[in-house]
Amino acid sequence: MFGAFERAVAGRYLRARKGERFVSIIAIFSLIGIALGVATLIVVTSVMSGFQTELVSRFLGVNGHVTIEAYAGQKIGDYEELTKRIRALSGVESALALLNGQVLLTTSTNVSTGGLVRGISQPDLKSLHRISDHILAGGLDDFTGDNALAIGIGFATSYRVGVGDLVTLISPEGAATAFGTIPRVRAYKVVAIFDAGLHDYNSSVVFLPLPAAQVYFQKPNAVTQIEIRMDDPEQVEQLVPKLVPLLRDMPVQLRDWRHANDVIISVLQVQKDTMFIVLGMIVLVAAFNVVSSLIMLVKDKRADIAVLRTIGASSGSVLRIFMMCGAFVGVAGTVLGTIIGVVICRNIIEIQRVIENLTGGQVFDASVFMLSTLPNTIDWADVIRVVALGLVLSVLATLYPSWRAARTDPVEALRHE
Fold this sequence. Notes:
- This protein has helices spanning 4-14, 21-62, 79-87, 122-127, 129-132, 153-158, 199-204, 210-216, 236-243, 257-260, 262-300, 302-310, 315-346, 348-359, 366-369, 380-406, 410-414, and strands at 66-70, 76-77, 92-106, 112-120, 135-138, 149-152, 166-177, 180-194, 205-209, 222-223, 225-230, 252-256.
- It has 417 residues and is an alpha+beta fold.
- Strand 7 and strand 8 (180-194) form a beta hairpin.
């Protein structure tokens, strides 16, 4: 498409000589603008994609792909037989019986906060790798009996609770007496501290051995929830019809992970698309800089264009020469921006720590964004989308100035030379 003659002339125009520095400086700024726009767009879209992926992954790490939950005030009896039958279904990896209840968590310093107690057996808790693989203190081997409690690192740090300390659970659903309902109060010993990777989970969720939870919540031989994990989370639609016959006439509801987190997922997707459009404007503005620099180059080279036409260069050759000049700026800026963006994404956690050390503030507030660090994953589909946007805008930016250069009349251009 581009001959040796056209490449040689375009290369000559890209190497500014004395008296041509101004046009060259504008082209350099255009290249930098496109590089910064592409790099920013890659970093933001990759962070948003990584945030969405990481958040869903961590949600699925601590919650089931399909949840069978009893209606408020109800319970699931004969849960051992039910979980055994569920595990026998194809595609099911595990089925965990849980007893959930809202309580007030009180420490030895009389500091209280609301929390969720999850009663679970020791083997089932060990099978939750998001918990069992991230034990920071203590161990799950002691998670037995009627006096054991596992808490999150957020709660432990905020209220200065360590392994061996007592945490008192206060439930409003107590015993009814002549003087009214007396809340249930019981202190448990902390045997393990975990990091689930989710701020809210670390701060407000604690685990009790299932038998102890059944005693505390007065639900003997019963649970309130069964969480099912599948080999492939995307196959939940195929599992739900198989569960319906097993749950006939039971006061429960089915919910899969997509519906449980659809609000968060949809909001993140809208934010990601919006950020792509808004930051894409940066690349568009930089592309306009390419247009302006190329127009100035064409105006500066009118006499050269006339000479080229008189010695036999076709209008198509002139068009391609200036297209190469403009496209080089756009393509080089896009490639440079892609490299910068990928490097930043790969090292974003280190960059976050450096900025926090220098400023003394927080770049990524875990209490707001739920994750403790910025995700450093790269969504290559988004990278390809950004690169395609940069290349398309760069090529489109060269069309009009190149067309005007090709339409230059040699006679008019040389009339006043």
